[in-house]
Structure formats: C-alpha cells, structure tokens
Amino acid sequence: MLKTLSVVVVLLAATVVGFAQPAVASFDAASKVFRLDGGGVSYVFGVNERGELEQLYWGGRLEATDVFPPARAMEEWASFDSSYTTTPQEYAGWGAGLFVEPALKVSFADGNRDLVLRYESYSEAPHGFDVVLKDIRRGIYVTLHYEMDPKSGILARSAKIENREAQAVTVEQAAAAAWALPAGAYTLNYLTGRWSGEWTLTQEEVHPGARVIESRRGSTGHQANPWFALQAGKTDEEHGEVWFGALGWSGSWRITVEQDQMNAVRVTGGFNPFDFGYVLHPGQSLETPIFYAGYSSNGLGGASRLLHRFELERILPRTAATAGQALPKVRPVIYNSWDATTFNVNEAGQIALAEKAATLGVDRFVVDDGWFGQRKDDHAGLGDWYVNKGKFPHGLKPLIDKVHALGMDFGLWVEPEMVNPDSDLYRKHPDWVLNFPGRPRSEQRNQLVLNLARPDVRAFVLGFLDKLLTENDITYIKVDYNRNWSEPGWDQLPAAEQKRVYVEFVQNMYAILAELRKRHPNLEIESCSGGGGRVDLGILRYVDEVAISDDGDAFDGLTLQDGFTYAYTPLIMTTWETDTPDWLNKRSTSMSYRMLSAMQGSLGISADINKWSDEETALAKRLIAAYHQLQATIVQGDLYRLISPRNGSEFSANERVREDKSQAVVFAFIHSTQKGWGFPTLKLKGLDPSAEYALSPIEGKAREGTPAVASGAWWMHHGLEMDEGFRGDFQAAAFRLDKK
Ligand code: GLA
C-alpha cells in the first residue's frame, strides 16, 4: 500500500483515452519522495537529509504499492570526493566541491561563484511537478519542470533560473536536466557526421571520464545530433535495457555522458557552456531548453519506437486541418527540381516539370532556390525576397495557378536567416549580421548570418515571410540554413550582454515559425539546413518535416535513414528519388532501387522527370500509387530494423507495422551479392501471431511456394523468404502484409 492516505498527495492521475496505464505523479510528504509513472517507466527522486534533490530510481515501471524510503546522500568516499559530488543530484549547482558536470554555474557581481541548490517547494503541473530549488544563501531560484508522457513514459525536463538578488548574475552554464543511470556497464550510441554524410550511428563503451557530444555552431549541426541512447550490458536491437534522450534545442548545445570515479553514469545536457554567458538582471529569468528522456526494455528498436510515437503524438505540430488529431497527417509526395535544375528555375521550365509531376501522382510542387533577387548562383540575392522578374516575368502567380490546376499544392524555398553581401539587404543594413566590429566577417557559401536576436531583424524576417504567404497561395515553405556561425558578436549590446545571442537568436526563430503558423493555419514547414543540419526536438515543435541530407544517393540513403530513425520518426524524414548517376558518388542505380530507398520515408522526387523513359515513368507511377496506399503504415507504423545496412552490410531490411497490427510493409535491399549467398530469411516482428496475413509483393518476388496467406506466427517464426533470383548489386524488393 502507498503508506497512508494522510501523507500521500496524489496530484494527478491523467487517463488519456486509449492508454492502458495513466501517468501518475505523486509526492509523499512524509518521505519527501516524488514519483512519476508513465507507460512502462517509473522515475523517482527525493529530498535528501541535506535538502538536495536526489535521483532514486529510473527504469521499468514499478507497482503503485512499492514505496521508496527517503533519499539519503551518498557517503563521503574520501577527503577527495565529498558526498556532494558523488550524490546523483537532479540539478547540482557548481559549488561545495562539485567535480562532476554541474547543471548550473553562475558568477555573482561580487566575485562569488559558489552555488548550492536546496529544495524549497513544489507545485502540481500537468502530468508532473514544478520543483523549486534555491541557493543556500542567495536569491537564485531554480524551478525544475517535470512532465511525464502517460503513454511512452518519456519524461520532459527543463529548468527556469531566476535572479532575485539586488545585482546582476551571469549564468555561465545551464543544463536542462541531469539524468542518473543505475550503476553498470553501458554502450553509448550517438549520431555523428558532416554535410552530406549525417546520421552515422556511433557506438562505444562508456569508460571513466566524459564523452562530450555538442554543437558550437549556433545551430543543431550535422556533426552531431542532440540524441543519445545508453544500452546496459548485453543488449541488441530488440532486447535489453536502454535509456535514451533528446534535447529540444536548435542552437549550440551540449550533452555530456560521464562515468565518474565511483563508476556512476550521468547524462547532463542543455545550452552549450562554451562561450556562454547569460546576464540575469534582478528579477529576470532564463528558461532552458527541454531535455526529453525515456527508458525501454526492448533494445534500441524499442527505444526508437517509443521516441517515434512520442514525436508523432506529442511534439509535431498540427495544422488547422489536423487540429486535435492523434497523429499528424502523412506528408504529401513532393516534387522539387533542385537536383535536376539547381538555381536554373523559371516559369516555363517549372511548368513543364509540374505537368509531368502531376501525371506521376505527386501531391505538392516545390520551387527551390533561385526564384528571388539576383539569384543566379550562390553568390548573390539572399535577403532580397522579391521574385526575380527575369525568371518569373509575371510573378509566381501563373506558376502557382498552373500547379493548382494540375491538382497539386505549391511550396517555396526560403533561407530567412541569411544574407549575401551582394544583396540590396546587406547594402542597406550591413550592421544586421553577426560580427565583431573591426574584425573580418567570414563568409561561407558567400553568405553571412543575420543576427536574428535583434528585434529589427526578427521583425524583418517575420514581415517578409508573412507578406510572401499572404500575397501568394503557398501551402509550404522549405526553410533552409546553409552555414554555421562565425564571429558571433551582437555589437549593439554592452560587451557583457552580447552572448545572449546564443539564446535569443533561437528563441526568435521559434517565435517566427510559431507566429507564421498562427497567421497561416494551414501552412506546413520543412526544416532544412544543407540537408540534416537542423533536426532536433526543439525545431520539431514548429515544422512538419525535415531534410535528412543533401546526399541523394539511394544506397547512402539506406544508412542515412537507418541512423536518422534511431532518433526521429520516418514521417518527418524527407527522402528524395534523385537523378542517376547521383551527383555525389556518381553511382548508377535502377529506378526500382531508387524509388524503394526513397519510399522508406516521406517520399519526394527531385530527378529530371522529363528525361525519364516511358518504362521508368510507368514504374515510378506505379510505385507512387503503392506508396500512397501504404504510406500511413510506412511512416506512422512501428519500425523494426531486421537487418542493419550499417558497417558495409551486404543486405539490409526493415519492417513497418501499423499500430493496430492490421498491415505491415517490408523493405529489403541487396548491396552486393557475394559468393552466391542468397538473401537471409526475414523473421518478421510485431505482427498479431494468431491473425492471418496475406502477402503481396510491391516490387520483387517471394520464394516460390511461399504461402499467399499465413499466420502472424508463421511470418514471425518461419519467416519470409526471397525469390532465388533476388541477387546482384543494388537490388531492392518490398512486400505488404494485410491482415485478413
Ligand atoms: C541546401 C539544401 C538543398 C537546396 C540548396 C539550395 O543545400 O539542402 O536541398 O535547397 O540548399 O541552395
């Protein structure tokens, strides 16, 4: 039993329709233990004898009857390691001899830099708590926000830091949360890469010391993505315990995975403390990003399925058309000619492509870079968001009307935070860019970064985007961001305040996107940053889909997509069929291989479709029709990675199963058959064992004699065998299974 009712305050028991187990948040006033239960997860912390907030448990869901004793700080290990540093605090201030990564570090005007946070109070919050901590002497208050998703057990944590002192303080480091894991051996998984080579799943054992995953670039970045997964002991794709998390921040960020001298493992993440310094004047406060984290006992596959569902149900925005719906709608199939035409867009050429795209079954036609200002190539025009009269003599209207008449909607590319020095905007407002006066302004792709933290720049960006969307019938904008920061000065502010840019730039971007969605309730947005450079749970609250890479090679697509889906749902993953040979690797692949690779996410076509042969056109048309039919299963279903394409694998395969188990889609790819080895039998997952499923090919064939209908148990235990002829280089097949 839960102690006695007199000491237990059950704050909240939110039953969400269809959820087997409601999220429960409870506080035991006698033991000062806070507990959150959701999905298959319990998270427990308490106030220890010194008044610090200490984590007590995070893992598989416990019974409501299980009771935790009050928190007890760790013993002092030696004179070198005080109890303050070894105790797994929820949010430790840097002070009192803390040697692990602090959650918060501040410096006061008088030179004091010691901060020791103790529990003050708590209040109820939807699906969780707000817990207030305060420094032992000074008026620094920290409100820790906890919100548990009832279905997935994913916990959202963030902190608000408030200065109630009479003088300013500088926040030098502020995490959203610190997470403590049970003692043990772990493998860390994280995502690394570079432009045109994002989403590499990097795996390593956790050793004593800290592994820092970060971006110092002012935005999320291609080099690392703010996601981690820690696997305990012996785990694999579908088995074993995994603790995972993702940070919702599209600015410079840092996640530190640390094994301390007692072998305890903690993960601390939030604003990147590098070059950070946020001045809080008396009465001011700073809100950190949100750090989401969860637990699965079903391996990395289980962890990613939880994250996908959480993103679909709790993070991604809705439009007016999907308001209140459980899931965002599946994405329209897009045609975007970037790969085919690059900057050479014009009315006649785009209309010719639109006419062909419509016959293929494309839903949305998007004009990419090159439509505005004096934009011939990447040397000029960014910032001048008026239609280029040479390319579109009558404005965009004739093209937009044509696209609508062809039954598609219209989208447009913009890169709002950037400017080319060769632009009217820069000539008029050279002071609008990030810079340090008297220092060089480093150009990348011939462009500079506008200082979006400035109120006038923010007003300009919101203003031109709003005007564009008001004056034209545009359903979708692809918001690009094609360089990272350099010389991040904000010279209108006093020296001590200039680093606010790291926070306010990003907050303003979010505010602009939110405002645009409010003013144009059917607007849909793609986040692109030279491919997958701005993908995180922060921007995902404001955008409907993301570019994953500028690398459009269908073979590379398999590993890019595989890495991406460890953290993010296939629904937001734009995957383009592009010209062959592709521009990057010069690899030639068949239409069937390119289409099946691109059909694993939200399908787009970017090839020069007017050059396709009749056979290629017919095949693409058939596969787009199949994709439309199966799209909900492919992008909203549960993803099972059956054979990973990583590490040069000869084969790869994955499966998507609708949440109600009524349908599954299987994709299979051969990189290169070697020494006559046939494709392995695919033991499917996630089906209803006793239901009957009919198998039909989308592309390719199953082995002769494969039953047309068999039980879920058959497909999962006996498995699906490929046709003997499924061999060669860059081969692809796909199947659907429909519950009878
Ligand atoms: C970036 C994007 C591409 C394309 C170009 C346009 O590289 O990732 O898809 O939009 O910019 O310049």
Summary of the model, kept short:
The chain is of the alpha+beta class. Alpha-D-galactopyranose binds at residues 338, 368-369, 413, 480, 482, 528, 530-531, 547, 550.
Describe this structure in words.
The strands form six sheets. Strands 7, 8, 9, 10, 12, 13, 15, 16, 20 and 21 form a ten-stranded antiparallel beta sheet that branches. The longest helix has 23 residues, at 614-636. 19% of the residues lie in helices and 31% in strands. Helix 10 links the parallel strand 30 and strand 31 (602-605). It has 740 residues and is an alpha+beta fold. The model is unreliable at 1-20 (pLDDT under 50). The protein is globular and about 75 Å long. Helix 4 (347-360) runs parallel beside helix 5, helix 9 packs parallel to helix 10 (591-598) and helix 10 packs parallel to helix 11 (614-636). Alpha-D-galactopyranose (GLA) binds at residues 338, 368-369, 413, 480, 482, 528, 530-531, 547, 550.
What is the strand content? 25-35%
Q: Distance between termini?
A: 45 Å
The count of strands amounts to: 37
How does the major sheet shape up?
Answer: 10 strands, antiparallel
Average pLDDT over all residues: 95
Tally of helical segments? 12
Overall body shape: globular
Radius of gyration of CA atoms, rounded to a whole number: 27 Å
Low-pLDDT runs of 5+ residues are: 1-20
